[in-house]
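hey can u check if this looks right to u? its 288 residues, i copy pasted from the old doc so theres a chance i mangled smth
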Amino acid sequence: MSKILEHLIALLGLEDLGGDGYRGQSQDLGWGRVYGGQVLGQAVMAAGATIEGRRLHSLHSYFVRPGDTTLPIDYQVERVRDGGSFSVRRVVATQSGQPIFNLSSSFQIAEDGYDHQSAMPDVPGPENIPNEQERARELADKLPPDVLKRATADRPIEMRVVNPDDHFGGSKLEPLRYVWIRANGPVPDDPVVHQCLLAYASDWGLLATSLRPHGLSILSRKIQSASLDHAMWFHRDFRIDDWLLYVTDSPSASGARGFTRGEVYDRQGRLVASAAQEGLIRPRKKPE
């Protein structure tokens, strides 16, 4: 396991405070706030710590306030219901007594049933596609030093974009992205860890899809952007240390908000997870 991946898995691990309370540390990725995927992954770990014999199948969450990278995050779990087949948990994440995030999640026993899925798109495999760090190095002369440093740093999740954004040309592109993702090293067999890592990765670049038809990218200084909510559904077992295709599309943008959907397929073409998110994409006002 790479050091950066080992650090992320340790970051997702939580201190048990008792009474279904947990504490996680914050990570500073240089954005001035805690990355939303980190809070999401830690909240899933907190909810899962109160469950036995059932697997997470869906989550719905809201980002309430920006997280402070200098402070730990406390997670309080509420055991809403334990039924015969399903369990529901609610998690509130706080810093300095203020809520920054909340999560509702549902867990289910293993069951057989009907089975169908949408077909995996026919796109090139990941083998000959440069990763995000390699693409950033190609743009080194166009990126500010602080952005270049973040963009070329080692990452726990490797990402290879099949149809990359036009960060500087202003081209208006179809609101559709294909990204191959994989953990940067082997991951323990615990399926909860794989779900948490996919939740962590799913927030990365999802909102950017809604900017493509407007000739903008997430690096643009013309917009103010932030994730507002995030939902996921886990359909089938998977391993995040093998390549997964993350397909995202944006059917709508309005009211300074962009809506984006995601589907995650494994190399065998199985649909293993889905995601949805609405985020702020507000044009910045010109200084007077």
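The mean pLDDT is 92.
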